């Protein structure tokens, strides 16, 4: 939506910019006696910019209509999460996760999951995207789950461990499906 606002503001500035261009053109015309090849007149330039303005306005209206028709479909939580993630492509956390997956660092991946407190759907979308960078995503998931133990001193919070296993397996299944 911010992009649409910027486009709208730029379209509103066209008349002001065109007036500045007209003044510059008049100044140039005053010096046209030194330019033997100067054959333009303002009406040609004005017509050209008016055509461009009309075309841009029409395209902008089409873009706004598409954006409006797209909004109801983005009410789906997963699609809005996906859109949010695409908008945050430079997010260091996502880059870190992709880096772990591309380097097949199963232990770090497991620890990353343990540290995450976000909703399951947010983590799932991030994980689905990051596993695509793994040379062998199945091996990475199995190696990460390999450390999962229900007994021993590292028993810890079983709920988090179960969630992590499910997240990894669901992400792997999503890649295969």
How would you describe this structure to a colleague?
The protein contains nine helices and no strands. The two termini are 33 Å apart. It is 73% helix and 0% strand. The chain folds into two domains: 2-31 and 40-70; 77-176, no CATH class. It has 177 residues and is mostly helical.
Features:
2 domains; single chain; mainly alpha; 177 residues
Detail the topology: elements first, then pairings.
Blueprint lengths: L1 H11 L1 H17 L11 H29 L6 H11 L4 H11 L3 H10 L4 H12 L5 H10 L11 H19 L1
- DSSP E strands, number: 0
Give me the secondary-structure category. Answer: mainly alpha
Strand content: under 5%
Mean pLDDT: 79
Tell me the number of helical segments per DSSP (H or I, 4 or more residues long). 9
CA radius of gyration is 28 Å
- Span between termini: 33 Å
Order of helices and strands: HHHHHHHHH
Give the helix proportion (percent range).
over 70%
Backbone shape = elongated
Low-confidence stretches: none
When the domains are counted, the total is 2
Q: Note the main sheet.
A: none
